[in-house]
Design goal:
By secondary structure, the protein is mostly helical. Helices cover 84% and strands 0% of the residues. It is elongated.
């Protein structure tokens, strides 16, 4: 049971890291645009990069916290 929990946690952590990277990239592009007002800085930036990734991070965090709390109850 402990192995499956660790496997689950590593998968969730990897997904959260991917989402975090997406958000960091979007932030960098937005900050570059804000500093330069150059439309080229926004090239490749999609709606998902901004709102989708923020929502995805919130949902993933919510489920990760709930799952961790559930597993903690079983491990005690």
């Amino acid at each position: 049971m402990m192995y499956s929990y660790l496997l689950w946690f590593s998968l969730v952590f990897a997904q959260l890291e991917k989402t975090k990277t997406t958000l960091k990239n979007a932030k960098a592009k937005l900050e570059k645009f804000q500093a330069t007002k150059d439309q080229v800085a926004l090239q490749g930036l999609t709606k998902h990069d901004i709102t989708g990734a923020m929502m995805q991070a919130g949902v993933q965090s919510y489920f990760a916290i709930n799952q961790a709390q559930t597993k903690k109850l079983y491990l005690v």
